[in-house]
Design brief:
The protein contains 4 helices and 7 strands. It has 147 residues and is of the alpha+beta class. The protein has 2 domains: 1-89, 3-Layer(aba) Sandwich (Aminopeptidase); 90-147, no CATH class. The N and C termini lie far apart (33 Å).
């Protein structure tokens, strides 16, 4: 594995975070570099990232977990998640594709029934359900919670 450093993002990393999020094809909204933990390689290239994103005063989301494809399988997502969870207030929510659920269960997250979701996640779930019908991806959206 390349030597890497795990650290809070700086303003100069903002464009690389945006590029990585777009590269891996996850939700590009709410990307504020001040909330991100990043992994950088020897060339100071952002190779992995994640954030805790607030939704109002009460709801926080583990979000934007991304790893450059050529660095996958080296435990970077796990390290980013562990770093973010270490200081995060509970409860903490996340949204992911259903095939990613088992990864987040390892950290203690549990899938929520629609009725138990905060309003923000209910809205997104409805939109994702419509998009899934239109796209026929076969992968659904999970909302999970860590107490």
């Amino acid at each position: 594995m390349t030597n890497l450093i795990l650290r809070p993002a700086g303003e100069t990393n903002s464009s690389q975070i945006h590029e990585l999020i777009h590269l891996v094809g996850i939700n590009p909204t709410g990307l504020d570099w001040k909330r991100f933990i990043i992994a950088v390689n020897d060339g100071d290239e952002v190779i992995a990232c994640g954030q805790i994103k607030p939704h109002g005063e009460e709801v926080r989301e583990l979000a934007s977990i991304a790893v450059r494809p050529e660095y996958r399988g080296q435990g970077l997502a796990r390290r980013i998640i562990e770093s973010l969870l270490a200081d995060a207030e509970r409860p903490l929510y996340l949204m992911c594709r259903s095939h990613m659920g088992p990864l987040y269960e390892k950290f203690g997250f549990r899938t929520l029934a629609y009725e138990a979701m905060p309003r923000y996640f209910k809205r997104i779930t409805k939109l994702a359900g419509l998009a899934d019908v239109l796209m026929r991806s076969g992968d659904s959206l999970l909302v999970m919670k860590l107490e």
